[in-house]
Design a protein that fits this description.
Layout: H1 10-22, H2 26-35, H3 44-58, H4 63-71, H5 74-88, H6 90-105, H7 113-124, H8 128-131, H9 135-151, H10 168-177, H11 189-196
Helix pairs in contact: 1-3, 1-4, 2-3, 4-5, 5-6, 10-11
Amino acid sequence: MAFSTGGLFQRETLLVVELFTKNADWDQIKADVIQNNLFQARTQASMERHFREIRGRLKQLPDQAIDLLSQASHQEQLALLWYAVCRRHSFLFEFAVEVIREKYLRLQHEVSRDDFFRFFDAKADWHEELEAISESTRKKLCQVAFRMLREAGILTPDNLIVPALLSPAVAQVIHQDDADGVRIFPISDLDIERCLY
């Protein structure tokens, strides 16, 4: 549940990817980011927190996905960044599959905050540690999750589901890494097959 910091971090992630392609030394990349304030953060603590999250997300991606990120279109980058977020945070992975995609397949077009909180409560029945999370933290997690969903182009500003248009390159990279990974997007099984084959 450590996704309460920031959002999708597209600009910052692409800066880190650019550094990573030149030198895959994470300590050196972190030093470059901090010394040059590449994230344009107000404090070093927030820059370090953002870097830690971005590094954690990128470490979830296979090498092919990182290579693709550096040369992908804007839409492909958003899809890969959302995949990285979901790989790092299983709660978001499950929310994307079990709530957003299921609603899309049932032709229910809107995702509400109530959907998030119902999902959270259902998961808390199975994971006692979730019950210890305060109400204010739950609201913050919901706010950040919806922000990332909008930034990734999965939800509109009015929380309507946007059908995913995955490129074959993105779909194949994700599928090779995790056969169920493509299901974090609002996309039908038939459209998944079209992307992959």
